[in-house]
Amino acid sequence: MATVELTFSALPAHVRTARLVATAIARRTGVEESLLDEVRLAVGEACSRAVEAHRAHCPGEPIRIELRDDSGRFEVTVSDQAPSDEIKPEQPLDLGMLSDPFATGFGIAVIAGLADDVEVFPSPKGMRIRMSWPAAPNGRLPV
After folding, report:
1. Where residue 49 sits, what CATH number does that domain have?
2. Domains in the chain, number
3. What is the pLDDT of residue 105?
4. Which stretches within 83-137 are classed as H helix?
5. Residue 94: its pLDDT value, please?
6. How many CA atoms lie within 13 A of 18 on its CB side?
7. Rounded to an integer, what distance in angstroms lies between the CA atom of residue 124 and that of residue 86?
């Protein structure tokens, strides 16, 4: 299992870099070419949401992305440190119960539509969004 970690400051320009890095690693991990646009868009949405939250609450704190290949999956976790008073610590958000996607952020609903598997962990100390897609074992697509 290989892991790549990336941190960046809360500037919109860095979202593009995060998307490019995620797409390159997804390709190398063996994510099908047809899914790479979904990876790019979902990572961009998660990072944009984090940048927006940081700019409003903690502009000096970095945003963290962890990219890993694990058991035939390409997994991306975007973590921010923007506080939220209305969220219980580390209680996963049930994405199937989103009656109003604007209540938790429209971006999360978009991410849920793009990624194969999504988990959102909001807490008073920030939010962690984990998303994953199928990847070829050992990073090699079948020929």
Report:
1. 3.30.565.10
2. 1
3. 60
4. 101-104, 106-114
5. 54
6. 32
7. 8
**pLDDT at position 124:** 85
Q: Which residues of 15-52 are buried (b: 16+ CB within 10 A; e: fewer)?
A: beebbebbbebbbebbbeeebbebbbbbbbbbbbbbbb
pLDDT for res 93: 55
β-bridge partners, 126: 123
The pTM assigned to this predicted structure is 0.83
Nearest to 21 by CA among 34, 8, 9: 8
CA angle centred on 39, ends 99 and 141, rounded to 5°:
130
How far apart CA 59 and CA 50 sit, in angstroms, is: 10
Q: What is the pLDDT of residue 108?
A: 87
H helical segments located in the chain: 13-29, 36-57, 101-104, 106-114
Q: How far lies 77's CA from each of 26, 89, 120, in Å?
A: 13, 17, 9
CB within 8 Å of 134: residues ≥ 6 apart: 31, 32, 35, 72, 73, 74, 116
Virtual torsion, Cα 30, 32, 36, 37, nearest 10 deg = 180
Identify the segments of the chain with pLDDT beneath 70: 1, 84-105, 138-143
Q: How far is CA 10 from the centre of its chain?
A: 15
